């Protein structure tokens, strides 16, 4: 059996998967505010899994620019501390188990490649969470790029409503709408409540979420023309919201956006795509006989 971690801005999802590729146990850990507590949570979870199951390896899905050979995580994300210490290598050495780590959006893509038939397809993934990640499959091959940042759509430069340059991640996610509601209106709601109130045309939720959709459509429009993929998959927890996907598809079929003719669909396993992709990456590394090496 294998232990899987999917590290996110608000929580780290944890799963045990067996040799039949079935998730037999799943839980989550609230994200920690510092590196020390983060490492403690990883160690405790790993120790408990080892005591209960015959764990043969650990697969990790992580935000940021992930070097799958060393385990180092570069770039930026909602969790600053994961970029300052090689936690994947730390787990490998502490528990003497094979550890494989990959970018979360790449994991989502690896999941679809393994469990669905994407052979010879050109596909883009837009993974929406606290920020926006992305991945590109070109003729059935996951693209990495010179800086390991191929498909990082969240870095796409746009201007906000004040005319200031910012990026797609900060403009096109519900968690950032939530932050604006707190800062500008003193309103504190969950992202699910915000989306529901949007569909009820409640103010100020409707205007802010509608603006979010417009920015997301801009990003998808640009992706569609730059890459011209056969399909664009939407990943992350929001992918399981049929109302969200339907609204996005509707808006992509309006005005200038419909010219892109983008084919949009949710990832197959919704919130589990990253976990399953972490497993696929781990299996690949085990077959190749590779382990993390920081030297």
The percentage helix is 25-40%
Q: What percentage of the residues does DSSP assign to strands (E)?
A: 15-25%
Please give the alpha-carbon distance between the first and last residues. Answer: 29 Å
Shape: globular
Rg from C-alpha positions? 19 Å
The largest pleated sheet is described as: 5 strands, mixed
Structural class by sheet pairing and helices = alpha/beta
Helical stretch tally: 9
Task: Report on the architecture of this protein.
This protein is an alpha/beta fold and 295 residues long. It is 39% helix and 22% strand. It is built from 9 helices and 14 strands. It has a 5-stranded mixed β-sheet, with helices on both faces. Strand 5 and strand 6 form a beta hairpin. Helix 3 crosses helix 9, helix 5 packs antiparallel against helix 7 and helix 6 crosses helix 7.
């Amino acid at each position: 059996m294998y232990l899987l971690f999917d590290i996110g801005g608000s929580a780290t999802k944890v799963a045990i998967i067996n040799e039949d590729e079935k998730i037999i146990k799943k839980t989550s850990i609230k994200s920690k505010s510092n590196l020390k507590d983060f490492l403690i949570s990883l160690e405790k979870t790993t120790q408990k899994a080892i005591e209960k199951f015959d764990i043969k390896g650990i697969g990790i899905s992580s935000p940021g620019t992930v070097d799958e050979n060393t385990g180092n995580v570069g770039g930026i994300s909602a969790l600053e501390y994961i970029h300052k210490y090689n936690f994947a290598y730390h787990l490998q050495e502490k528990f003497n188990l094979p550890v494989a780590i990959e970018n979360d959006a790449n994991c989502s893509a690896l999941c679809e490649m393994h469990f669905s038939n994407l052979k010879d397809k050109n596909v883009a993934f837009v993974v929406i969470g606290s920020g926006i990640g992305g991945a590109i499959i070109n003729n059935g091959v996951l693209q990495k790029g010179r800086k390991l940042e191929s498909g990082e759509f969240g870095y796409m430069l746009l201007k906000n409503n004040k005319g200031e340059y910012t990026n797609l991640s900060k403009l096109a996610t519900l968690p950032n709408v939530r932050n604006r509601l707190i800062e500008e209106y003193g309103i504190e709601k969950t992202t699910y409540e915000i989306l529901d109130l949007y569909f009820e045309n409640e103010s100020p939720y409707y205007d802010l979420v509608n603006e979010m959709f417009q920015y997301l459509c801009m990003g998808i429009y640009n992706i569609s023309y730059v890459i011209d993929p056969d399909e664009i998959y939407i990943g992350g927890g929001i992918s399981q919201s049929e109302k969200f996907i339907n609204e996005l598809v509707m808006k992509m079929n309006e005005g200038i956006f419909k010219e892109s003719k983008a084919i949009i669909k949710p990832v197959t396993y919704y919130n589990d795509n990253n976990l399953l992709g972490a497993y696929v990456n781990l299996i690949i590394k085990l077959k190749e006989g590779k382990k993390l090496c920081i030297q």
